[in-house]
Amino acid sequence: MAHKKQTLGEFIIENQASFKYSSGELSSLLNSLRLAAKIVNHEVNKAGLVDIIGAAGDTNIQGEDQQKLDVYANDKFIQTLTKRNIVCGIASEEEDDFITINSIDESHGNKYVVLIDPLDGSSNIDVNVSVGTIFSIYRRVTPVGTPVKIEDFLQKGSKQVAAGYIVYGTSTMLVYTTGDGVNGFTLNPAIGSFYLSHPKMEFPEDGNIYSVNEGNYIQFPQGIKDYIKYCQKDEGDRPYTSRYIGSLVSDFHRNMIKGGIYMYPQSSKNPKGKLRLLYECNPMAFLAEQANGKASDGFTRIMDIQPTELHERVPFICGSRNMVDKCEEFMKNA
Ligand SMILES: O=P(O)(O)OC[C@H]1O[C@](O)(COP(=O)(O)O)[C@@H](O)[C@@H]1O
Fold first, then answer.
1. 0.95 surpassed by complex ipTM
2. Does the pLDDT of residue 264 top 80, yes or no?
3. CA distance 30 to 120
4. Contact at 8 Å (CB) between 261 and 324?
């Protein structure tokens, strides 16, 4: 029975049995993500003091300038996961292609792949606004004993076995699901342990917060424009409040606690939107659905979309169930 003050380590072990493939491997994998989160958190917290903010001087496959903290977080998560002989492959926003990881006995015996956005909200790193890490975990579909292949990563979101995020904000939290609800753990920096602070997190069915970069308004599809006008109309429980941090993890986290909707739609500049299906939208969609929320591209459930490329983008609408339904209604009627 989950209880407050339970550490993340204890919770992982205690809930291992409820996990479909209740072997210890997923628990060890979650524990290695827990360790990497602490290492990166330490660097994020002192970002202003050490030479870790600003551009790293390279660009990633998305053509974005890599920030030093992006690169640092990417290295730390990959190193931590690689050393623990659990994963057979990693895909990252900061890596052009997936990384094949062989098991220590060279038998390609590992069963899990991890997809990761090591540092989400990178435009906020240098200005001391909360950022995050997003992870998505699948069991491989190709035979154990063979090197991992692209099809192990291009699985529908509905096949995820676990997903979560770390938010490096006023406090550092790790929030995750293994398909049995969503739980949030807060890091006690004095002790260096994550404690269960937010058991069974749920999106309120309705909310009064909408999160979207209104700077792109004129480029949005008519349905989104109509929904934004609906949110702003002085009628009933509206106008809603506009809140946009510019870090998906932070906007999602706030909306899950208070009730709200986050939108990164397609636009004339980004015909497929900006966010990446595999390591941004799918994991947040899994969490949203496990927390009684909803996630779609305006028409299709995000976790039903069949991926075709590692870094593909999709329009993303996610949050309180009734608000996403309303937004979809406007999209369909536009
Ligand atoms: O600045 P924009 O175009 O509004 O984009 C902000 C969005 O892009 C993101 O930063 C994702 O991109 P990164 O993973 O490269 O940071 C989201 O966290 C955020 O919601």
1. yes
2. yes
3. 19
4. yes
